[in-house]
Design goal:
This protein is α+β, with helices and mostly antiparallel strands. The chain has three helices and five strands; from the N terminus they run E-H-E-E-E-E-H-H. InterPro entries: a-kinase_dom (IPR004166), Alpha-type_PK (IPR051852), Kinase-like_dom_sf (IPR011009).
């Protein structure tokens, strides 16, 4: 038989906030984009530099003054002991490409995230 995987249609304006090859959306959806970039940075920091969730895209908006994004189809970059996450996993190159474009803001500072692309072996 056949297998199918799908998701519900996301209603609204679809926006790409970052990509797996270093694109960082700095012009559209300012606060939404800042949150997405901080999230990608957060995943790198909290995984001790072994993983990064990127390719963040979906429908963004505001509800009662609170920004939200319904995201779909992310990509993970991996390094170290983790297995690769498909062809879009660009490993060290993808992680460094993100950090070449990313500028830490208030959220990164509030979360006390490391500012550099640390590609030495992580220490737990």
């Amino acid at each position: 038989g056949f297998h199918f995987c799908g998701e519900s249609w996301l209603k609204g304006h679809f926006v790409k906030l970052n990509s797996n090859n270093g694109f960082v959306n700095e012009s559209d959806y300012g606060e939404h984009s800042a949150i997405a970039q901080a999230f990608s940075h957060f995943t790198f920091d909290r995984s001790y530099g072994e993983l990064m969730v990127v390719d963040l895209q979906g429908v963004c908006g505001d509800e009662n003054g609170v920004p939200y994004c319904l995201l779909t189809d992310p990509q993970v970059h991996s390094r170290g002991s983790y297995e690769r996450f498909g062809r879009g996993d660009l490993g060290d190159d993808g992680i460094c490409a993100f950090f070449q474009k990313h500028k830490c803001g208030e959220l990164c500072a509030a979360l006390k995230l490391r500012k550099e692309c640390n590609l030495r072996a992580p220490t737990h």
